[in-house]
Design brief:
It is a single chain. The protein is mainly alpha-helical. The protein has 2 domains: 42 residues, no CATH class; 70 residues, Multidrug-efflux Transporter Regulator, Chain: A, Domain 2 (Orthogonal Bundle). Helices cover 66% and strands 4% of the residues. The protein has a two-stranded antiparallel sheet. A hairpin with a 5-residue loop joins strand 1 and strand 2. The longest helix is centred in the C-terminal third of the chain and has 18 residues.
Length: 112
């Protein structure tokens, strides 16, 4: 494994755009605290239906919220698999909130 040079990494971090820098620092903090991508390797990967069941939601609801587009990982061209942690993290994200707002607005137009 090729270990990156810390000085070069820090230069790249501080040269990055502010929003990218903030995201990188948040991700590094999560990994160092033990709640980031490093711990997700031990989480079981599940199908879309299984994750929906584990979260107590329906698959169509998760689909409408964009989970299938923004989460999951496909191996060797197969179907995507998901972890409960990554789906929960996405559902708490601003992007999921935008999907919810758009979905609510659309439902209100149906009632009118």
């Amino acid at each position: 494994m090729n270990t990156p040079n810390i000085e070069e990494t820090m230069r790249n971090l501080f040269a990055a755009a502010p929003d990218l820098r903030e995201a990188a620092l948040e991700a590094a903090d999560a990994v160092l605290r033990g709640s980031g991508q490093a711990n997700q390797a031990s989480s079981p990967r599940m199908s879309f239906q299984e994750v929906a069941r584990a979260l107590g939601k329906t698959a169509p609801t998760l689909h409408r919220l964009g989970v299938n587009q923004n989460c999951g990982m496909a191996f060797a061209g197969g179907r995507k698999t998901y972890t409960v942690g990554e789906v929960e993290a996405y559902l708490a994200s601003p992007e999921a909130m935008r999907h919810r707002a758009a979905w609510r607005a659309q439902r209100k137009t149906w009632k009118s």
